[in-house]
Amino acid sequence: MSPYGSCELSFNKWAQDFAKLNRQVMMAHVIDALRSQIAKPFEAECEAVNCHHNYVTREHHFGENVLVTRKGAVHAAKGVMGIIPGSMGAKSFIVRGLGNPESFDSCSHGAGRVMSRTAAKKLVTLDEHLADTAGVECRKDAGVIDETPKAYKPIEAVMAAQADLVEIVHTLKQVVCVKG
Is there a contact between 114 and 151 (Cβ–Cβ < 8 Å)? Predict the structure, then answer.
């Protein structure tokens, strides 16, 4: 255990709560902005999917209280909703966890890289990046080559590999992608 004991986990929980609130505030601003541009009134009362990744939490698995680190992973307990994003040019998925105990009720959070950021900058051309992000409103400059779709595994293969962890509820087509 950390020399900081439970204080470190308390800080982690605080950070997760802060991130969740931040996402809620951003969503409220997005809805307000849409309402200012769309003349027809609409409601936005659907369920929001809040999905942490890259965190540590206390959970109970295999008869023991344990610390679970989800790095590149999200909670996928039975019925828990999640988001699995693709790359800048790929689909993303809204999923429902199946609660697979062998995975500690977890699934991947995205495609995962097939090349490092450095390799992507060396191996992928700007023309390839433009082609791979055609039809997606996103940055189309050399500054995001490290995030280009070729740097990631095909999201369809990733989803097929975790069919025992989550069920796909919705498939989202990428139309806008905001990267640093």
Answer: yes
